[in-house]
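TA notes, week 10

Several of you asked for a full example with nothing omitted. So below is the full record: structure tokens for the whole chain, then the designed sequence directly under it. When grading your own attempts, check the secondary structure regions first.
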């Protein structure tokens, strides 16, 4: 068992157990170089940090022990492990973290690289279960993935994951959002942020199969958008979005990450689009622009004072929302000199968001907006 203690600021105060032999005695990472440092220094990827920070907050808030299964592989072994997070009773907000190997399986050498079969887009590796994927839809064990695509050099360790797969997110973790970095955000002092609200049918992990999270995860927006953070909300319960809770989380993230507060954008689809209408009506001084797909504002939402530029998309065959109402709303907004755009996909139904988020001009339009 590997053990370490974090103080209330997530600074590593103590390490113990086989960690000293596994890391310190190899000369690569000495104990003295770890003690006194923030634990996030040793995490790779904003998604993993945002998830574990919520787990830490949950344990501190509830004072309950929480356990998480995960993988920590080497080039010789697959290791199935368990992370245990528990509060330190005698030290306020401190945590004891321990990781235990549940099973260790010797792995075969991975195939030699064949450049003729390297896929055109980058691949993803889940930071928790160590499965790999190209599209974000199908996730395979690293060995199966390597045999299919031959992208690993023989005997090379598998790459560290920078994403979390849908199955790991579908677990009942105490997490209500995930933060994903798009592009090289570290090159800038401040970068834009996009807040994404999924639809009712995308409860729990299914939102990861929808754009924009999928487009960001697979790197398909690298040429169309500058570096930015994507804040994807997770609503696990049926019913409307709690816009106050959404704003509470957005405010916290805006203070925790280097966000350009003049370039915070909003996008939502279906029921997430309805919540987006409510947000831009109430918090027009927060959002520089919005893209809303497959959603019309309900009659009780007063848009007479709408200030946020908004691009609305709709499917001409949509039976879930009214085409006539969206045209009426757009006409009223234009009469009031609101900055609005509307795109109708005549041969599409309710699922018009795939076409919406694959249109480069929509992304260019959005990132041009600033408060």
């Amino acid at each position: 068992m590997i053990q370490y203690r974090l103080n209330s600021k997530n600074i590593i105060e103590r390490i113990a157990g086989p960690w000293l032999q596994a890391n310190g005695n190899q000369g690569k990472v000495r104990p003295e170089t770890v003690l006194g440092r923030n634990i996030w220094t040793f995490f790779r990827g904003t998604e993993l940090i945002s998830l574990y920070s919520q787990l830490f907050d949950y344990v501190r808030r509830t004072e309950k022990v929480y356990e998480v299964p995960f993988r920590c592989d080497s080039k010789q072994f697959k290791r199935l492990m368990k992370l245990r997070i528990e509060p330190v009773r005698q030290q306020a907000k401190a945590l004891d973290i321990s990781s235990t190997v549940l099973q260790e399986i010797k792995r075969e050498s991975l195939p030699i690289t064949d450049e003729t079969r390297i896929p055109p887009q980058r691949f993803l590796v889940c930071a928790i279960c160590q499965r790999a994927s190209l599209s974000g839809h199908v996730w395979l064990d690293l060995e199966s993935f390597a045999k299919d695509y031959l992208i690993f050099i023989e005997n090379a360790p598998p790459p560290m994951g920078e994403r979390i797969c849908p199955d790991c997110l579908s677990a009942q973790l105490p997490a209500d959002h995930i933060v994903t970095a798009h592009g090289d955000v570290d090159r800038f002092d401040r970068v834009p942020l996009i807040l994404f609200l999924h639809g009712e049918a995308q409860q729990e992990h299914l939102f990861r199969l929808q754009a924009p999270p999928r487009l960001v995860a697979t790197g398909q927006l690298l040429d169309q958008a500058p570096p930015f953070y994507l804040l994807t909300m997770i609503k696990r319960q049926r019913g409307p979005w709690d816009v106050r809770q959404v704003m509470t989380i957005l405010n916290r993230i805006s203070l925790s990450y280097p966000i350009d507060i003049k370039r915070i954008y909003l996008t939502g689809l279906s029921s997430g689009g309805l919540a987006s209408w409510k947000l831009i009506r109430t918090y027009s001084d927060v959002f520089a622009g919005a893209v809303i797909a497959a959603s019309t504002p309900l009659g009780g939402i007063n848009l007479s004072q709408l200030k946020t530029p908004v691009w609305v998309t709709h499917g001409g065959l949509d039976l879930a929302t009214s085409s006539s109402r969206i045209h009426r709303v757009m006409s009223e907004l234009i009469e009031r000199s609101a900055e609005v755009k509307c795109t109708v996909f005549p041969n599409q139904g309710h699922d018009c968001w795939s076409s919406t988020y694959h249109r480069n001009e929509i992304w260019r339009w959005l990132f041009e907006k600033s408060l």
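The two ends are 51 Å apart (CA to CA). Use that as a sanity check on your answer.
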